[in-house]
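Hi Y.,

Following your request, here is the sequence exactly as I used it, all 663 residues.
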Amino acid sequence: MDRFELIEHCVKIFEAFNETKTTVDHFGDEYVNAKRIQEQTDITFIHQVFYGCVRYKKMLKLFLNEFYDKNSAQSSRSDQHTYMVFVYLAIFRLDELGWDEFRKLVEEQPPLKMNVFIQFLFSRQCMDSVKEHWLNLFDQNYVNDTLIRGLFKYLPPAEELIAKLDKKVTGRLVERSSMVILPKPTTVPSPFALSVPKPKTKTEEAAPPTPKFKSRPFDPHAIEESRKKMEEKIKTKKEDNDRKLKEKYGDSRPFQFQTESRPSNKDKILKEVEAQREAAITSGPKTNPVPIKILNNEPPSRAVKMTAAAILREEALWTKKMQEEQKYLQATEETLYSNTEYAERIEQQREEEERIKQYETEKRRLEYLLDAEEKRKVVEEMKKMKKEAVKVMQQEQKELMEQVAVAKQEEIEKTKVIVKELQNVREGAKVAKIEVAKQKRREAKKQIEESEEMLRRAEQEKAEERAKREDLIRQIRALEKVPNRAVKNATSYDPAETPKLGLFGEMSLAELKDRLEMLQKHEEERLAQKREKILKEKEEKNQKLVEKALKIQQLRAIQFEKATTHRERLKSRAEERKIKEQEEKDKALIDLYEKLQEKKAARQQEQNRLLEERRQNAKKAAFLFENREALEEQRFLQKELGMEREIREQQERAQEQARLEQE
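Below is the corresponding structure, written out as tokens. Let me know if you'd prefer a different format.
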């Protein structure tokens, strides 16, 4: 498989992986089987790159975010998985792959997209910007020693690779003395040549005109009179219109439809629909009514049949209740406390527990506030420490770059010396290769001869073993054909005689049968006794269950009586409480009624006082305005003057309108 297809498979498997649905190992095996990749080295390479990209996915995403932030116009988001694969290979597997193999993998890709990526990957700008993000995930020593220093080692060959990619993209060779990417010049905007507007002349505001006449004062009585006159006119006009309509259409009859006189089954249909709806509502499952005995709190006339488990469970429950009641009575006798004192003590304990709970809650709240303050201080200290660490790292990076430059120069000198030595060694290497090839041929020939000799010996041993096996089979078959003479010499068998073989507990067949019959009889007797014992125990158990059931019924009856009396007591208390509340409510209503009566009497007194004051004021007004006829004449004169002024204004408006029409 060529290098382009290898990288393409790595990108596709990483792009199609979904960690929420499957695991890394299972998905890797499925992908390899689906693509039918047979070469073991290719499978290993794809698996390792896939596992590494999944493991360092967060770190690779931080790198790509910074890359797209700096080169958004020169790169495409669709190539992000390809870039992630190459970042993983450059940072973690470059020493293992070697620069030549990495260069070949890069050159197999399109040069346009790889040019921008390699420039950013092997640049100081990348190291400075990405380092801050990586420190949030990894330790500082790991970032400096493993991630960044690994890229520093390959800066010289990276310059040559970038120069080749530039030449492929632009068609010319670009000299690069350093890997620092200079920022592109930005566009400086120039202002528009706008014309200067002429200043506007300020016009003086004209003074408001002085009125030629003086307005008359507001008279609310005149407006009220005009409104009444207008209402009377509208009313008379409406009455005249109604009268005219009656005179004109008095003999007319309303129009009658023929459908009204036809027979209709509308009422019948309505009744049927209502009956269907009522049937649909009442056609559901019917429940049985509540028994009268339950409503009247009467005990059941017949006991419910209970199982053994229910009887035992009920007995355990009643036993537990009786023990608790006995403990309570014993504690009451020992402490000499009544029920009220016990209830008060329980209430005090509950209040004390509530107070303790509130105290604990407040304590936890204060502790939480203190913890939050401590956390805030710790975060601020961490930020300060990180800033100081960044400054130290920047200083260390500067020193490291200087050391790298010195080491680069030394490596160049060493490389020149090594090149000269290699040129001298290559000439002698050709002769050594020929001698080594001859030696390998001789050794291979010798090994072939030895293997042939070993195969020949193995075949000979197999043939000898096969012959021995066939001879043994022939002997066994001959023995099988010889007749057995021991069967002919056998004597008759006596069941009462022992075999006399010298075994422990040896006996004849007849004795064995007798003993077996005895054992069977003993076993049957044992089973009968056991059966009788079981039946007896069962009867005793049933008798005990019957006694317990009777006892439970008695306890239930006692409990039912207690519950009935307790319910009646609660009911009577509720009725007494209700009567008391009603009495208090009635008393409150009486008090409220009395207060309302008092307020009503006070209000009546106040009204009487105000009425008396009005009478006094009216008398004073009568004394003050005795000359009413003079006031009436004066009011009438003012009305005449107002009417004359209104007529004069109407004439002036008419003259003005006529003058405008003539013009």
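DSSP finds 18 helices and no strands in the chain.

Thanks again,
Q.
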